[in-house]
């Protein structure tokens, strides 16, 4: 959409406000709103100024002036505002007009440009499957003398014996028993329907939705694949809609990977493929999983760089409470066709040449999608460039349930890092693949590691409630 068409849309639709948005390093959106009467061609030429020193990890106070540059192809009418509002996603530039090297969206755009320059293909497609929980009540505190969290859900299995207004009607969701039941066990069909309808209203193509495997409102909605930056934009819209529709229903939604102890967590399985024009590059009929040699090298790159990659695809301390055996989490760095216990799965059901893709199951939604998708593409391209063979490197294929393999065999399988600090150590040791083509700068990587180490330290130095259970009577 051109600037002229955006301005025409504002006039024709009687838009009252224009909301300019950007995404920080952690993956959270920020916005500045202008009355529509103040938006003209110069707004799109000059951008919208903001204070970069107030955004964690961006700029120091002596160089704080930053500019949001609107992307006229990334607009939609906000479905939640009382006054008609047009949302526009932006990339961040310095005052002299240069893409800011710490702006995640600019990094995603650079990754797409690097793919074209590499000669491998023209377009990378991504499709994230972002899971979430819907709760009724969430309380938490972390202070000097008290630390706790408490969540509740009317459909949670732990409430089967609770006295409820009007009587307890039972049909609660059992622990690990939430995968695709019908009502009345699935009590949130209407909420997810409204989420889907709202997504469709703003242009997202939704393929399906369902209750996920956990109790207490575990959910998943799948929207259609798109190009790298567009898919990251779409995920930001998706999370915005999920959280605001939940709030409209008097509930709260979280994409936190592991909000409940002893229950399956929420992942963000990411499907990806590369095309050259209209030609899919991952398909070759009759091979393992119908994958081409190029696709196998792409897998080799993902698995070879996985420990470092996970610092970007699973960037929270909570991520590693999901990445433990026994809760359907893909902790083993191997590949397989159709096997959901592998870190990389090759979908084989009803797959066409254009639908042939690789599914990386390790990521979660604490990831900044612009950074995660860009890093995945760069890892795969490095595998293609170096012709990394995942079979020769010992990454599979493993077509049996990995959790049920003999212990001697499992010991030979490489696992994901056990903590955020371990993943950051891996990123420090293996970051060159990210700097190819200037996509990630050394400054960004160093700054990112510093920010994430601070998060890990904030958790590690605090007294944990379970420590009272273990040690109070020592």
UniProtKB/TrEMBL annotation:
It catalyses: L-glutamate + NH4(+) + ATP = L-glutamine + ADP + phosphate + H(+). Keywords: ATP-binding, Cytoplasm, Ligase, Nucleotide-binding. GO terms for molecular function: glutamine synthetase activity. Its main location: cytoplasm. InterPro entries: Gln_synt_N, Gln_synt_N_sf, Gln_synth/guanido_kin_cat_dom, Gln_synth_cat_dom, Gln_synth_gly_rich_site, Gln_synth_I, Gln_synth_N_conserv_site. Its EC number is 6.3.1.2. This is Glutamine synthetase. It comes from Paenibacillus yanchengensis. The gene is glnA.
């Amino acid at each position: 959409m051109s600037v002229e068409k955006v301005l025409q849309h504002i006039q024709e639709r009687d838009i009252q406000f224009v909301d300019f948005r950007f995404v920080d390093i952690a993956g959270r959106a920020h916005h500045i709103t202008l009355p529509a009467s103040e938006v003209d061609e110069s707004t799109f030429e000059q951008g919208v100024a903001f204070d970069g020193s107030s955004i964690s990890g961006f700029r120091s106070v002596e160089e704080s002036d930053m500019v949001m540059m609107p992307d006229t192809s990334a607009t939609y009418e906000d479905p939640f505002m009382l006054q008609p509002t047009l949302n526009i996603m932006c990339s961040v530039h310095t005052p002299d007009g240069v893409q800011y090297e710490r702006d995640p969206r600019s990094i995603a755009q650079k990754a797409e440009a690097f793919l074209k320059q590499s000669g491998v293909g023209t377009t990378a497609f991504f499709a994230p499957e972002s899971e979430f929980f819907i709760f009724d009540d969430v309380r938490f505190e972390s202070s000097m003398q008290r630390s706790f969290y408490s969540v509740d859900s009317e459909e949670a299995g732990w409430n089967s014996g609770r006295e409820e207004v009007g009587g307890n009607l039972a049909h609660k969701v059992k622990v690990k028993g939430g995968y695709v039941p019908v009502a009345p066990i699935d009590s949130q069909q209407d909420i997810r329907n409204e989420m889907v309808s709202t997504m469709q209203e703003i242009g997202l193509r939704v393929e399906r939705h369902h209750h996920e495997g956990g109790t207490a409102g575990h959910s998943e909605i799948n929207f259609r694949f798109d190009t790298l930056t567009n898919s990251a934009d779409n995920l930001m819209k998706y999370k915005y809609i999920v959280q605001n529709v939940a709030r409209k229903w008097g509930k709260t939604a979280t994409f936190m990977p592991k909000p409940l102890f002893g229950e399956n967590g929420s992942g963000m399985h990411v499907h990806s493929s590369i095309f050259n024009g209209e030609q899919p590059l991952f398909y070759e009929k009759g091979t393992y999983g119908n994958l081409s040699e190029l696709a196998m090298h792409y897998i080799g790159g993902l698995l070879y760089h996985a420990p470092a990659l996970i610092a970007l695809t699973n960037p929270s301390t909570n991520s590693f409470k999901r990445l433990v055996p026994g809760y359907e989490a893909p902790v083993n760095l191997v590949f397989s066709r159709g096997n959901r216990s592998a870190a990389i799965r090759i979908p084989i059901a009803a797959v066409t040449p254009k639908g042939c893709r690789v599914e990386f199951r390790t990521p979660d939604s604490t990831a900044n999608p612009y950074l995660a998708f860009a890093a995945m593409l760069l890892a795969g391209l490095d595998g293609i460039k170096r012709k990394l063979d995942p079979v020769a490197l010992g990454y599979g294929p493993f077509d049996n349930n990995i959790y049920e393999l003999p212990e001697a065999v499992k010991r030979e399988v490489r696992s994901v890092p056990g903590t955020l600090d371990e993943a950051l150590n891996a990123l420090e040791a293996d970051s060159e693949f990210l700097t190819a083509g200037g996509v990630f700068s050394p400054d960004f990587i160093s700054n990112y590691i510093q920010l994430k180490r601070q998060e890990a330290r904030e958790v590690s130095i605090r007294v944990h409630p379970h420590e009272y259970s273990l040690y109070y009577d020592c």
